[in-house]
């Protein structure tokens, strides 16, 4: 009999991470999980079809070297040994926690931020310690204070739900003071003006994670990666599943990394829509935090967010209602196509006026 | 500076699991990692191509329900809630260890057996305890003895490298005595006469893992699953990555589970080749352990195994040389196509005579 006492206590204590709702495709305008509203590059689809005819009965390359070479090239890294490929950046984050943080040890994260980090710490039986952003979404220097048993700091940049960024210069300062690795989770960095990739080359304890789920429009294939010193990549490779990425998604991700023109154009479109959407939301009485990501964090000054969320849902529009307790609640709305955004703005206008 | 003291001690202590060699495709006759020598069903390739045109910019179904329904149907389970889909059965094994075994706690495994189990325990900072098979590859009842802090028992059945099985009735006896879950790793069960799937329905602490890498010829797509009581599936789902399987491999695996005719015919062919290969190896002076899997474990009575391995490698044939210390070494040879097996037998004949 598998009774509850048989699991690790950390597991039974878990509520489990609840990702954004995933309704059947087509029914909703889906602006709740920061997916790219556009299909991925055609080259990626073609690469998948070609890989489908390949030797699927054989194990894939355990280290996804073709991808690592393409990623190093795309990001100007010295070589593929600076890249660790994973089954989504979720797997990379899991490996980082399992690699650095033991049971009872500490993980530092900002607040409000990506809720998954706390779940990853909880699964490990580790302790998470939150440092709150101030009202302007600035991160206090206390984020880099020494603390007993502090083993890892995770900083999403741009942050979710705010879409705000911590500057490169502040990240260098934080890393200089921290006595543990600082992971900069750059899931949304392609939508921002700057990123921390080059800092990895110069600062030993800065690690960067990336995903193909957002800017490359490939949430469906689960592919993310770590950018770190070769020694760190080698050490963390020891704890990944031997064949953590499949042959098809390696082919897809490799093709994607070569589509720099597509990437630039896609991000340009999304940023243009984001700007327009932010302006229009402000006209409707929202306080909109200036975003460097593919979503905006907005708070209405009169109407309850839960009410707006439910109204939109009743109209087949999904956005993310997020409640951060003392820090308040709000709506995180992903940037959709212009047509989707127009539809949402139209609905909000009719509801709020 | 990420120095070695920053990692969890369990991680720095790891040598890391070394999977079988994966040379570039085409150059070798590859009989070292128990892949299926035949391509997967055409329906699977078609399903991948169709999924490639699907909404790849969207996250996949987090619980792969289409696959779970197909798997439950194929295996005669009461419903999809008895199935947990994973990124290869490697991920399922990782989740089981992370779900049940804490740092310093115990995992029981047979010996000689699948070396990965020890690595998974080591990553977790857990302790593995081996119970040796006897000379006839029978498992002593001591495998189910109580022990302080014993949290999980892992039993590959058929076993690797031997290809031998522990009977269903003995597995029931073991599970009745064990005070922890007993995981029967059935990676190779489609090549055997019986399996333990139905035991999961009747025995609360028997869990079964399966993979599509072997009998379905799909090592390249990374798909495996757990068969367990719905409560166990729900509990372990809390610790998996939210979207652990990608949209393309979910489509591929779902299509595969519907190819029962293909599966039966493929296994029939491999078993026929296995029988012939075993007889011929015996004629060449090998002691061949009767196999219920898609490989054979053989030991030569005169010639050193390392020598045979090197000879075959020099002739572009890869087999697996495995050394289990006091239990001796031997060669594990995957069952290839008839043509591949003929080539290997021909080489061995010329070398050994």
The main sheet of chain A comes to:
7 strands, mixed
Rg of chain A: 20 Å
* Low-pLDDT sequence parts of chain A: none
The secondary-structure class of chain A comes to: alpha/beta
CATH topology of the largest domain in chain A: Aspartate Aminotransferase, domain 2
Highest-level CATH class of the largest domain in chain A:
Alpha Beta
Shape of chain A: globular
Strand adjacency order, main sheet of chain A: 2-8-7-6-5-3-4
Order of helices and strands of chain A: HEHHEHEHEEHEHEEHHHEEHEEEH
Assigned CATH superfamily of the largest domain in chain A: Type I PLP-dependent aspartate aminotransferase-like (Major domain)
- Average pLDDT rating of chain A: 96
Number of helices of chain A: 12
Oligomer: homodimer
Query: Biggest interface pair, residues each?
Result: A-B, 85 and 85 residues
**How much β-strand is present in the residues of chain A?**
15-25%
- Please, how many domains of chain A? 2
């Amino acid at each position: 009999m598998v009774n509850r006492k048989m699991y690790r206590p950390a597991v039974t204590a878990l509520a489990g991470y609840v990702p954004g709702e995933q309704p059947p495709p087509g029914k909703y305008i889906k602006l709740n999980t920061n997916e790219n509203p556009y299909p991925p590059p055609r080259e990626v689809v073609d690469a998948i079809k070609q890989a489908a005819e390949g030797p699927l009965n054989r194990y894939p390359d355990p280290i996804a070297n073709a991808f690592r070479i393409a990623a190093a090239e795309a990001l100007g890294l010295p070589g593929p040994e600076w890249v660790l490929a994973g089954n989504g950046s979720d797997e990379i984050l899991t490996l980082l926690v399992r690699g650095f943080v033991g049971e009872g040890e500490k993980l530092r994260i900002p607040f409000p931020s990506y809720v998954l980090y706390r779940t990853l710490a909880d699964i490990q039986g580790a302790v998470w310690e939150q440092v709150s952003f101030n009202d302007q979404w600035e991160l206090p220097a206390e984020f880099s204070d020494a603390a007993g048993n502090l083993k890892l700091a995770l900083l999403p940049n741009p942050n979710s739900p705010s879409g705000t960024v911590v500057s490169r210069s502040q990240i260098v300062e934080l890393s200089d003071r921290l006595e543990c690795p600082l992971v900069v989770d750059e899931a949304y960095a392609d939508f921002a003006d700057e990123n921390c990739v080059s800092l990895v080359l110069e600062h030993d304890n800065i690690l960067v994670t990336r995903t193909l789920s957002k800017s490359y429009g490939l949430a469906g294939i689960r592919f993310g990666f770590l950018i770190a010193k070769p020694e760190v990549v080698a050490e963390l490779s020891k704890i990944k599943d031997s064949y953590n990425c499949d042959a098809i998604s390696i082919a897809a991700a490799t093709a994607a990394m070569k589509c720099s023109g597509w990437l630039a154009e896609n991000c340009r479109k999304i940023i243009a829509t984001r700007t327009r959407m932010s302006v229009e939301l402000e006209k409707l009485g929202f306080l909109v935090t200036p975003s460097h990501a593919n979503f905006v964090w907005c708070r209405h000054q009169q109407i309850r967010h839960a009410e707006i969320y439910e109204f939109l849902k009743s109209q087949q529009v999904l956005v993310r209602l997020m409640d951060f307790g003392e820090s308040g609640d709000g709506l995180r709305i992903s940037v959709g196509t212009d047509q989707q955004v127009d539809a949402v703005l139209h609905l909000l206008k009719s509801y709020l006026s």
